[in-house]
Amino acid sequence: MSCRSLLTALLLAVLGSGAAQVAPAVSAAPPVSSVPAGFSVPSGAGDSIYPALGAPGLDVTHYDLSIRSDPRIDTLSGRAVLSITALSDLNQIALDFAGPITSDVLLNGQAARFAQVGEKLLILPPAPLKAGTRFTLGVTYQGTPALHLDLGLRLGWITQDDASYTYSEPDGAHTYFPCNDLPTDGASFTLHLDVPAGYTAVASGVQTGQRSQNGRTVTDFELPQETATYALGIQVGRLDVVTRPSAGGVALRDAFPAGTPESVRTPFARVADMLSVLTGWFGPYPFAAYGAAITHDPQLLALETATLSTFPAREQGEEVALHELAHQWFGDSVRLGDWADVWLNEGFATYAELLWAEHQGQDTSGLLRRWYAALTRQAARPLVATAAPQLFDSTSYQRGALTLHVLRLQIGDASFRRVLQSYAARYAGHSARTADFLNVVRDVAGQTALNALLPWVNGPSLPPLPPEF
């Protein structure tokens, strides 16, 4: 995600000079009140920033989602079939779901007792499930996706201006489909998007089929790589889909609302060049396709939805397009092990902006100093966040990027490239934490390099700007 800290600053200004923190997450889901007999509300999977999300003991391996929608209204109907492995003995299955009303749940094809309580969908199996058991859950639901606000953004399935799109970072996916809504539990996806004639649906993954009947069109997509729920991208509207020549075997396509000015489209015409630069630093691109989906909302912030990044309907520089492309490696392929480690996403994508500037022959010393100056304007903290308002601040972006540059100066370009590629390859399709990245640094570049990095990672104060900058 690009420039999230700007929105935080604006929100604080709106709340007034006495505001101490960003508005917390808000959902239209009913509060936890009475819990039906036989059910219990779990404590969550233990994420340090979003402790109520997720459920211990579950590994969702695949989501098969059928969603019927109409951008002229704000309701939808859906059916989600989840393939799950029990990681521990389960007397109850708990999913995150603050969305439309559930009408039925099938466990391995048989009706199961369920309850929606707060932002959880609770299911009772007819008999306890042993650790290692593989099973499927089919959930049918219909209604209006929940209103969910976090860090000043509306998240989830959003319908406005004759279009619908998903925007879920960090915790909005469970407003429109039942899921284990933490990036630690990545899964593959199959999508079937049913929309009225005259509208086009695009989504993360590769289109595998399309059929029309009775005034509607169903388009199918496959995303075989394990992906975080927040990174699932869907857009429905009156769209122009532009296909570009493939780059290094990667299919390129963009989706623009009809009438999008050329000035908004321009930065995405250079994605093939950007792919060439980033693969040289990060290693092979981790997906089969890439492109941009432009929304109608000019105020939106860009988001790294997998294989099809989401962008606002306004002019922006190439660095924004580059930033979201970099997230396909760091954020989408390598997922977060905890939201506290979001600098592993944002710091890496911000540093990619410098790599692109270097490729174009620009003097990057000014960019490095601007990053440092941005950090001096806020309270210093270590890279690992301790609260939600810190997730998308200058520390996650600029301090994270400067930390990588310090490493590069310490070990040289060749070793730095090996660190980036080793980290991307070792954790592709998996989640990682700060300690995992530091282990890669030590393994590739040695303990001396790691020691030089630690004040930038763990130090409570901002280290001085190195003279080499």
Automatic annotation (TrEMBL):
Q: Which SUPFAM superfamilies match?
A: Leukotriene A4 hydrolase N-terminal domain, Metalloproteases ('zincins'), catalytic domain
In its UniProt record, which GO terms are filed under biological process? peptide catabolic process; proteolysis
Catalysis performed (reactions):
Release of an N-terminal amino acid, Xaa-|-Yaa- from a peptide, amide or arylamide. Xaa is preferably Ala, but may be most amino acids including Pro (slow action). When a terminal hydrophobic residue is followed by a prolyl residue, the two may be released as an intact Xaa-Pro dipeptide
Kindly indicate whether the keyword Translocase belongs to this entry. no
Protein name per UniProt: Aminopeptidase N
* Keywords in alphabetical order: Aminopeptidase, Hydrolase, Metal-binding, Metalloprotease, Protease, Signal, Zinc
Q: Which source organism?
A: Deinococcus ruber
Pfam families in UniProt: Peptidase_M1 (PF01433), Peptidase_M1_N (PF17900)
> What family does this belong to?
Belongs to the peptidase M1 family.
> Record's Gene Ontology CC terms?
cytoplasm; extracellular space; membrane
For the Aminopeptidase N-like N-terminal domain, which residue ranges apply?
Answer: 61-230
Q: Which residues form the Peptidase M1 membrane alanine aminopeptidase domain?
A: 293-447
Among InterPro entries, the record links this protein to: Aminopeptidase_N-like_N, Aminopeptidase_N-like_N_sf, Peptidase_M1, Peptidase_M1_aminopeptidases, Peptidase_M1_dom, Peptidase_M4/M1_CTD_sf
Annotated EC: 3.4.11.2
User: Which Gene3D superfamilies does this entry report, sorted A to Z?
Assistant: Neutral Protease Domain 2, tricorn interacting facor f3 domain
Which GO molecular-function terms appear in the entry? alanyl aminopeptidase activity; metalloaminopeptidase activity; peptide binding; zinc ion binding
Annotated coiled-coil segments of the chain: none
Cofactor dependence is on: Zn(2+)
Asked whether the keyword S-adenosyl-L-methionine is assigned, the reply is: no
